[in-house]
Design brief:
Layout lengths: L3 E5 L12 E9 L4 E9 L11 E6 L8 H14 L7 E6 L13 H4 L12 H19 L2 E11 L1 H13 L9 E5 L9 H12 L6 E7 L4 H17 L4 E8 L6 H13 L4
Parallel strand pairs: 1-9, 4-5, 4-6, 6-7, 7-8, 8-9
Antiparallel strand pairs: 2-3, 3-5
Helix pairs in contact: 1-7, 4-5, 5-6
């Protein structure tokens, strides 16, 4: 069976008020040769419980489209307050400049694509290396994170990056992330890279004992839906121990941002601890 059907766009959830506190820094990358604006939301108990460590959500497009750091940090705050998820740290990965969305030399137009919009090689692999080799150790050293419960979350091209990171890093020892959220990940007729990477991963293993939440908009178009259906069917068939959920939502591409992050947090972190 394909995807379950979710609520319509009219039911898009409001973002709760953010609780806890936020720290910000500009963090340079020698791998990418650029700097990133990193925003860190620390939950309310962080300063009162110095012996406690916390799961951590790395939110891509932190300074874009919402911005998405504020959306995920808000939903984490609200769901924690309701006792529906465990308290978590949220790390937004954004840019300290106005992000030129379609530029091949800066921002997500460089970092989130294997091939740039002008046909040149993209910066996807260096960006994933930045996440794994530079940002994760930095956050681990600065905050009390549970490094066994790191989550990578993204929407659109950010969702593509999340899935690409899943498939490529799980081909290696000691995968850096424990769980993944993908909101309407970009996957159409011009880019079957995710299917290729999934094929490579499945050639190595049929075990993927992690949580994964994916969501797609019904009104993306037939090609996008068919590509997603192919990936969805592979995930269900190839990895019996994958804790996987997916939804087809009656909305357009932007309409999946809020519900995918809210439902992704519930799927991965549901049950307060």
């Amino acid at each position: 069976m394909f995807l379950s059907f979710a609520a319509c766009a009219a039911d898009e959830p409001p973002v709760p008020a953010l609780t806890g506190r936020v720290e910000r820094e500009t963090f340079p990358s020698t791998i990418v040769n650029d700097a990133y604006l990193i925003e860190v939301r620390l939950p309310p108990s962080y300063d009162q419980l110095p012996a406690r460590s916390y799961p951590v959500v790395f939110q891509l497009d932190g300074t874009n489209f919402g911005p998405e750091f504020a959306i995920t940090a808000g939903f984490a705050s609200g769901l924690e307050g309701q006792g529906r998820i465990s308290e978590t740290i949220v790390v937004g990965v954004g840019y300290p400049y106005v992000d030129p969305l379609i530029s091949s030399t800066q921002g997500r137009g460089r970092d989130y694509v294997p091939v740039s919009f002008d046909g040149k090689p993209g910066g996807l692999d260096p960006f994933v290396r930045f996440l794994v080799e530079e940002l994760l150790p930095h956050i681990d050293s600065k905050y009390r994170v549970d490094s066994s419960r790191r989550i990578l979350s993204g929407h659109s091209l950010g969702g593509f990056v999340s899935l690409y990171t899943l498939f490529t890093t799980y081909q290696k020892p000691a995968p850096p992330f424990w769980g993944f959220i993908g909101g309407d990940p970009s996957l159409g007729e011009a880019d079957y890279r995710l299917l290729d990477e999934e094929t490579a991963l499945h050639a190595l293993t049929s075990s993927l004992p992690i949580p994964l939440y994916l969501e797609i908009a019904r009104f993306d178009g037939a090609v996008q839906r068919l590509s997603f259906q192919a990936l969805d069917e592979r995930l269900r068939a190839h990895y019996p121990d994958l804790r996987y959920a997916s939804e087809l939502r009656d909305t357009d591409h932007p309409g999946t941002i809020r519900p995918s992050f809210q439902n992704g947090l519930l799927h991965l972190l549901g049950g307060a601890k």
